[in-house]
Write a structure and sequence with these properties.
heterodimer; A: mainly alpha; 13 helices; globular; B: alpha/beta; five-stranded mixed beta sheet; 10 strands; 39% helix; SsuA/THI5 (chain B)
């Protein structure tokens, strides 16, 4: 029995450098193989999934610190890419000298950002509020849907098409109706952001749940673990990396939902500022608002990384 | 061999471009919005042969965003755009190289519309209410001036962008008034939806009168004789449809099956009185008065010399 488990590397830790060793599962030794209790078995497996084999020696730093290092590297890469983009943008403006209403230079955009800060900042806060609420409801709805589909596999045959249909609907087309239903206030923007955030979370998490190592599922079945226990102690931990992927995508697309909502109906927000700037031919102000939206998306993405790091410290990333 | 191919291709290209040059001159016109009765003179001029007689082949393009046409023209993507006089002043203030060279609709069409059986009986009743608008960059100033005429200010209302869902937002009760509705269109739209509307006219409430729809072109093309021929054709079409409204409606409804409905029929006849009968004429006093109004409302910083952004086209002979 012990050998059977030991020879299977834990699904969730597919990238660990060392294969699992029997010594890493002490509770199994104490549990009598003759009369295994389902509770003991699921606990064992859960530990196996959640805490993969410890590295034999300390020459490899723990996964969490390596992830933190890679997080720092991501920030650095991002900063470099930003600097490069601005440099390219500026040189295009200097060399081709397009008229400012076609493409304003970074200097003009920064000036607009400063000049209009008193107007931009309160509206950015409105948009940020919509995004954060949208993230909360979208992630909750996505996680709940994925869990439901994992718990009742038969239902997923019905729910999946719904999820796909919801995703394939262009938000821009349904946005005007959503605004009429939910009003021009916060609610319609949150609904819009939720719709956009829901899909990456639900589909990524559900995929993760579906792709649990069959060996672990066999084991749970062998120990007589029920569906709820299997889901909670084996499938969900195994699917967490997939959920993190979904969350990162959600963080990146969340501003789109809020902005689309503001575009079709709002009394404040960066989307409205952009519409006004567009109508008044103030391309520099439009770019300034856009820069704030991008900044928000980047910060959200970094927050998602940080959260993943905290929640799943054991989750390792392949070194680049 | 490649050189031979290249010269053949060049010859073919020259031959192809030489052919249409002998025919009518092409002009592209970016409309302010999808084709509607406001564009009747253009549609009639095209479909009744007024443009052809002037040696023009005019292409009408409907954009998705009414703010796009001025930039399309400034960027050289279209020859002519239909725009709004307030927008022209603001575009010029943002250094877009544009000039007005003709008028399509010579009165404001914009109105503040409320439901007739609603709580707003006068402009004063707007205090504390929600007002919907579609962003054209001018509504807040316009509504502000109208509110000031009754002792209120913009701070007394909540402005909500409803992005062209004006009638829907008003009917659904999401807003108490809308400020971008046209007197010749949205009022009728409401009526057909079974609701009676009440309109407040900006030019009767503190806003100096302006041309709702104008023809604009790139500044460096202001003297292009094609623009003069274009305005002359539009002038002929306008006079013809003023004299023969029923025949004109028959021409207009055939242009696009989507136009042939009750809303467009009523809007068509309501708009007849609004078309500029002298599309080339430029009222200098009116333009400078309006520029002064925009400056007072802080929508533009300076008032540029009129001839830098509004001209009378060169008419052929």
């Amino acid at each position: 029995m012990a050998v059977f488990i030991a020879e299977r590397p834990p699904a969730a830790a597919g990238t660990t450098t060392e294969p699992a060793r029997p010594a890493a599962v002490p509770p199994l030794a104490s549990a009598s193989p003759a009369a295994p209790s389902p509770a003991a078995a699921t606990r064992v497996v859960a530990q196996r999934v959640a805490t993969p084999a410890q590295p034999a020696a300390s020459r490899t730093p723990p996964a969490s610190s390596r992830r933190r290092a890679s997080g720092r590297r991501f920030v650095l890469d991002l900063a470099l890419v930003m600097v490069a983009l601005v440099a390219i943008w500026w040189s295009v403006v200097l060399v081709l000298a397009p008229e400012p209403f076609l493409l304003p230079g970074p200097d003009r955009v920064v000036l607009a950002l400063i000049r209009r800060w008193g107007d931009l900042w309160p509206n950015a806060l409105v948009t940020l509020t919509e995004i954060l609420f949208g993230l909360v409801t979208g992630i909750l709805a996505g996680v709940a849907t994925a869990l439901f589909m994992g718990y009742v596999p038969a239902a997923s045959r019905v729910v999946t098409p719904f999820v796909v249909v919801l995703q394939s609907m262009p938000v821009f087309a349904i946005a005007p109706v959503l605004v009429l239903w939910f009003g021009f206030g916060l609610a319609s923007k949150i609904v819009m952001a939720t719709v956009i955030i829901f899909f990456p979370v639900a589909s990524a998490f559900h995929d993760g749940i579906e792709r649990t190592d069959p060996g672990l599922l066999d084991l749970a079945r062998l120990y007589g673990a029920g569906r709820a226990r299997t889901l909670a102690l084996i499938q969900v931990p195994a699917a967490l990396p997939a959920l993190v992927t979904g969350l990162r995508m959600a963080a990146a697309v969340a501003p789109i939902g809020a902005i689309v909502g503001e575009w079709v109906g709002a009394s404040s927000g960066l989307g409205l500022i952009m519409m006004h700037a567009n109508a008044r031919m103030q391309t520099d102000v439009m770019f300034a608002a856009l820069a704030l939206v991008v900044a928000m998306a980047v910060v959200l993405r970094l927050a998602a990384d940080l959260l993943a790091d905290r929640l799943l410290p054991w989750l390792d990333e392949t070194d680049r | 061999m490649p050189r031979l191919l290249a010269s053949l291709a060049l010859a073919a290209a020259l031959g192809l471009t030489a052919l249409p040059a002998a025919a009518a001159d092409k002009l592209s016109v970016a409309l302010d919005w999808f084709v509607n009765p406001d564009h009747a003179p253009l549609v009639v001029a095209r479909d009744r042969g007024f443009f052809a007689k002037a040696g023009l082949d005019v292409d009408l393009i409907a954009p998705a965003d009414p703010a796009a046409p001025p930039r399309l023209v400034a960027a050289g993507q279209a020859d002519i755009a239909i725009s709004y006089q307030p927008s022209l002043h603001m575009a010029v203030a943002e250094n877009l190289p544009l000039v007005r060279f003709g008028t399509l609709v010579e009165t404001p069409l914009n109105t503040v519309i409320v439901l007739a059986d609603g709580p707003v009986k006068t402009l004063k009743d707007l205090k504390g209410r929600k007002v919907g608008y579609s962003v054209s960059g001018f509504e807040d100033a316009e509504l502000g001036a109208m509110l000031e005429s009754v002792g209120l200010s913009l701070k007394d209302v909540e402005l909500i962008n409803v992005n062209f869902a004006l009638t829907a937002a008003l009917s659904a009760g999401q807003v108490d008034a809308v400020v971008s509705g046209y007197r010749n269109f949205e009022l009728t739209e409401l009526d057909l939806a079974g609701k009676k509307g009440r309109a407040f006219f900006p030019e009767e409430a503190g806003v100096p009168p302006y041309d709702e729809l104008i023809y604009i072109a790139r500044r460096d093309r202001a003297a292009d004789p094609k623009l003069g021929r274009f305005v002359e054709a539009v002038e002929a079409a306008t006079l013809w449809l003023t004299n023969n409204p029923d025949e004109a409606w028959a021409v207009f409804r055939k242009a696009d099956p989507k136009l042939d409905d009750e809303l467009n029929r009523r809007a068509f006849f309501d708009t007849l009185a609004r078309f500029a009968k002298r599309p080339a004429a430029l009222d200098a006093t009116r333009y400078t008065r309006f520029a002064a109004f925009l400056k007072a409302k802080k929508l533009i910083d300076t008032i540029p010399p009129l001839d830098s952004y509004a001209v009378v086209p060169k008419l052929p002979n």
